[in-house]
Amino acid sequence: MTVIQPTDEQIYELAEQLGMNIDAAKVALLQPRFAAYTAAYKAVDQMADPLPEVKYPRTPGYRPEGGENPHNGWYYKTEIKGAPEGILSGKTVALKDNVMLAGVPMMNGSATLEGFVPNIDATVATRLLDAGATIMGKAHCECFCLSGGSHTNATGHVDNPRAPGFSAGGSSSGSAALVAAGDVDMAIGGDQGGSVRIPASYCGIVAMKATFGLVPYTGVMPIEPFVDHTGPMTATVADNALMLQAIAGVDGYDGRQQNVVTQPYSEMLSGGVSGMKIAVVKEGFGLENSEADVDAYVKAAAARFADLGATVEEVSIPMHLDAMDIWTPIGLHGLTHTMMMGDGYGVSRSDLYATSLMDFHRGWREQADSLSETLKMAMMMGTHVDNTAGKRFYGKAINLSYVLRAAYDAVLADYDLLLMPTLPMKATPLPKADDDWDFHIDRAFEMLTNTAPFNISHHPSLSLPCGMSDGRPVGLMLTGRFFDEPTIYRAAEAFEQSGDWTSFSA
Question: pTM to 2 decimals?
């Protein structure tokens, strides 16, 4: 990949593209300046890219098939042993397939990335290995992570281990399925609109979207820097806290890591909820697509917290119902300009750029028809608004996100936690290939109302299972103050230890 000096004809074309008028005299003046610019680009191309060290040996692995991959949770299996000792010694981990693992293929759910092999380890991968974990491979995810369902991966759907034929949730679909099936102890997922919490709710596991910036996103393929999060998905609260402890903290690359506060989360689980104040958010219940049994199980869980000693009261946060509208311009413009048109990264960021990914990902333009219908739709809308109204709505939505944050903070000034259903529904049936196009899209975006708000408010938010209804898990979501993950974990641990969630009644 190199930059070639434009010809005179190309300069005229560039001027026309940019709405400029230019004549031959100006072209002649421009050429020596463009020659100097081109030389600078070539000089940069010859310099070594200062990439982080790949510390642990591995093999590329292989794609498991058939009985070795019954839920289609795995993309590639390998085995990378970490340090001989550490807080995650003996733990097995899967990485969502938007997390870079040097030498191991990555497709991020899309046929357009098939064949790409990263040359770096994401910070979270290195930290897991440093903590003694064994990485067992890459877990399937949805096409460029743009679906809350588990049916958009180019290789086929990911099945829910607890409810075959139903969605495993997305976009961290394989991560949740592998943990729920017991194939690994823990997994890394990504969350831009709920993508660790949605599959956790559908599959009956625990997942934390930590405070924005607490976990470095370095080496994870972005969607949009304002909403990008990555975090732990586990079978238990204790393992979740342990995993967050291993991966949290500033890495020196991720420019979003401002005023980060880390704590020994695994050592802060005890103490129960006595004295805690928990706000049950009225607007998180009774949504247009809420299932009555889901609301009932979560309200019963709130009552259980009261029985455990917490003060539990209903509060109203009307702006919660505006949050999905605010998220939409950020998500649509962000993914269009950063993930797709920006070759995966865009510009004006202080992060570590994975330039090998950028080079490979440019190829989506020749395979656009293979993208998921959800991504096509999102890109078309983002491009349409850009063409007709520019980027003001992205900017205004960012501005409004701070008003939304203040609305949650006003309640969190008086309460320790917010409580609501993670999702308004249980796992939905997987769409069939011949189902209507709009049905496939509905299955991708119908569940975001309670999760997406905290991707733009940036509060920490955890999903944990609180019951089974019709053979499918129900998820409870706890949200706390910035960098107050310990309070969330303490409450979640008390709830988990209060009984077998699969036997809880509404």
Answer: 0.97
